Amino acid sequence: MTYAVRSATVRFGSTVALDDVTVEVPAGSVVAAVGGDGAGKSTLLRALAGELALDSGTVQTPPKQRLGYLPASSGSWAALTVTQNIDFVAGIYGLAGDELAARRAELLDRAALTPAAGRLAAQLSGGMRRKLGFVMAIVHRPALLILDEPTTGIDPVSRIDLWRLVSEAAASGTAVLMSTTYLDEAERAAHLVVLDSGRVLVQGPYDRVRASFAGVVTQSARPVRADWAWRRGRVLHEYWPGGDPSTPANPPAGATAVAPDLEDIVIALSLARRNTVPS
Amino acid sequence: MTGVLLRAARVTRRFGAFTAVDDVSMQVQPGEVVGLLGANGAGKTTLIRMLLGLIAVTSGHVDLLGGPPDRERRRRLGYVPQGLGLYGDLTVRENLSFSARAYGAAVPALPPALAPHADVLVRALPLGAQRQVAFLAALAHSPQVLVLDEPTSGVDALARAALWDTIRAQAEQGAGVLVTTHYMQEAQQCDRLLLMSGGRLVAQGSEADIIGSTTAVAVRTEDWARAFAALNAAGAPVMLEGRAIRVADADPAGLAEVLRAAGIQASLEPVPATIEERMLMLSRQARAS
What angle do CA A206, A210, A212 make, to 5 degrees? Predict the structure, then answer.
């Protein structure tokens, strides 16, 4: 089973939030949407969840009771305990009795939340609260799981816990679409969608995204063109797209080329779009 | 320029029976960017609050700019807390005027990207723009020490690069920077790293020093879903990377045995561990003890 939005366009007033976007999420895969503020990540997730109407295009999504959705806000009730939060959501899907007790115990254990089961959600750390939101989104064994920035602002250990939970869901056949601003963790997904201003800049497995990246990234202490450069540690990286008549095709002799990682690729493609598309 | 800008010497802080920071010594020198890493509850924020003089030490000694962290020395400090410390109900210009007055500095000029928002309430701005305002407010008085608590959380790649440009510019002008981050790529941009776990400083130095003896194994197989399930059920710290499986600090022979018992063909290869995997192993040790 593959879930998808195809040729999707969404407008909010005069803003085009999604512009002819096609993204497929196959069962058993993790698809990661990356991009900046306003790139269209949340709109893409909400479109696939059937939470907003498209101006054009189609959505293929399971019925509501087979869909799990973790919004960017925490997604739990502060004044309920961890157990009460899970039981409340499970009740909506008709899960009760021994079946609920077994499922709850299993999920709490996998999320390392068992010792916190009786605690109010308000008293959890940020990482624990995101894990609780994840557990609530998956308690009914959805076919499609949609996670809006599940790992933003949480510590690396909780983030690994969450990735393990996401990996388990995919390994058991769930289709997963998630957004993230952490590009090093996006490299872990089977399929990447790089968004900018509502458009797909590039998508595919990380290796293919990297292989299809055209041009050269160099590093230096002082870049030649400031509007094509960005900070990486003590040095600056600079993008030479090549093949574009409006920019020099090649870096100057003696410039040091680097192997771009996903962070470089996303920034380079975003700059290329900004620097060559009249606003 | 004096030698050390920020110093903790054998600092301990207890809250009742709980030891939040346990015998930590560290320092920040002019011109360097020091990254402070650790899981939630590792003691990072408590250490920072002691260095800034916001809470007292239980034992040990802290120095800010060569003396106790009093009001006079804190005037030469720039601090961007996790919550940014801005007033949501004031405009950008009002926020900057307020903090400039508090530090006795001139009101900073707005960069082109923020100029159109001068009279907008801060709470109405996107997060990336709010962070830029918080940086401007913290830097207006040219501080000699900059303390940043997760400065780029939730910010996109381009805005993150711009904020790091600002951080580096301060260091190049001689300021010392202490920065906490949960973003490992960002940790790699620091000159030096400190890793805390359970209140203690457990490693420091380069990325390689932090990772230490932690190892990882990459498992590649056609049958990744079953392999993942089998290793997970065996209690291994597994994670998916594309369709490859990573296991931190595992014995390849033991993993091979689990896979063979499940009837799964796979190739196993030792790979360099990441900082995150080192942190994961530390927290598993802490949970176990």
Answer: 115
Measure the CA–CA gap between B133 and B140, rounded to whole angstroms: 11
Residue B241's Cα: distance from chain center in Å? 23
Which is more confident, A42 or A243?
A42
Domain boundaries, chain B: 6-207, 215-272
Q: What is the pLDDT of residue A168?
A: 86
**pLDDT per position as a tens digit, B117-170:** 999 999 998 878 888 899 899 998 889 999 998 888 777 788 888 888 889 989
Task: Say yes or no for a CB contact (<8 Å) between B39 and A30.
Answer: no
Q: Which amino acid is at B56?
A: A
- Block residue for tokens 């019925």: A63
Q: Which of B157, B184, B228 sits opposite A171 (nearest CB)?
A: B228
| Residue among B153, B229, B240 whose CB faces A153 most closely | B153
Structure tokens at B268: 């196993």
pLDDT of B1 reads 45
The CATH number assigned to the domain with range B215-272 reads: 3.30.70.790
Give the number of other CB atoms < 10 A from CB of residue B260: 12
**Cα dist. B216→A160, A183, B211, B269, B271 in Å?**
14, 21, 11, 9, 5
Fold of B6-207: Rossmann fold (3.40.50)
CB contact under 8 A, A267 and B161: yes
| Helices of type H across A111-177 | 126-138, 156-171
CA distance B40 to B44: 8
E runs forming strands in A29-120: 30-34, 56-60, 67-70
The C-alpha atoms of residue B138 and residue B5 are separated, in whole angstroms, by 17
d(CA A120, nearest CA chain B) in Å: 18
Domain at A2-205: CATH code? 3.40.50.300
Q: Is the CB of A270 less than 8 angstroms away from the CB of B127?
A: no
Sign of CA dihedral A21, B156, A230, B39: negative
Any chain A CB within 8 A of the CB of B239? yes
* pLDDT tens sequence across A211-238: 989 889 999 888 888 889 998 877 889 9
Contact B176, B145 (CB under 8 A): yes
pTM to 2 decimals? Answer: 0.82
Angstrom distance (rounded) from CA B239 to CA A162: 10
Residue position matching structure tokens 């366009």 = A9
Which member of B168, B183, B228 has the closest CB to residue A182? B183
Residues making up chain A, counted from first to last: 279
Q: Which residue of B has its CA nearest to A195?
A: B156
As a 3-state breakdown, chain B gives helix, strand, coil percent values, each rounded to 5, of: 35, 30, 35
For the purposes of burial, counting CB atoms within 10 Å of the CB of A156, is it exposed (0-12), middle (13-18) or buried (19 or more)?
buried
Q: Please give the structure tokens belonging to residue A123.
A: 């008293």
Q: Shortest CA distance to A31 belongs to which of A198, A266, A189?
A: A189
